[in-house]
Amino acid sequence: MKIRNQKDAEKNGLDMTSMIDIVFLLLIFFVMTFKIVEMEGDFSVRMPLAGGAASDPTDLPLKLRLRANEEGQLTGMSMNEIDLGTDFDKLRGNVVSMVGGNAPVAGDEGPELEIDTDYNLRYEYVIRAITAVSGYKDGDQVVKLIEKIKFAKPRR
């Protein structure tokens, strides 16, 4: 006896459409929420005390002087009485020649830099100077130059 309404044998299988949809949604979620962060400086900065006494000159061989005009624009830089103009690449080259580009040995904290600025100098120039003296990226390696940075009282 033949049954007329019998359908062909149905295949029992998993519908992968919803699984693929979820995988793509997760992929899009993680791609959109992933944040690429540039290398940020880990600055060891010490601010001057309110009634600060003068520091011992033997502790501080490197001094960076940043001069500004009335509008706060950088007009000149000098490191240990060497005039550098306003070029931060020249500042980095000067630091590399003084420090040698060698990372401090374990136990040795490396050189310390004192930044002396005019009172009205804009912060962007101070940050650019800190970036120039703290190190640079050589390919995939980070070359650290000066990690200890402190500030002198701003000049009026």
TrEMBL record:
Kindly list the places in or outside the cell where this protein is found, as annotated in its UniProt entry. Cell membrane
Instruction: Check the record and name the Pfam families matching this protein.
Output: ExbD
Q: Which UniProt keywords apply?
A: Cell membrane, Membrane, Protein transport, Transmembrane, Transmembrane helix, Transport
Membrane as UniProt keyword = yes
Q: What does UniProt give as GO cellular component?
A: plasma membrane
**Topology in the membrane?**
Single-pass membrane protein; Single-pass type II membrane protein
Indicate the transmembrane segments per the record: 20-37
A GO BP term, please? protein transport
Which GO molecular-function terms appear in the entry? transmembrane transporter activity
Q: What is its main location?
A: membrane
Concerning InterPro entries, the annotation shows: ExbD (IPR003400)
Q: Which family does it belong to?
A: Belongs to the ExbD/TolR family.
Its name, as the record gives it, is: Biopolymer transport protein ExbD/TolR
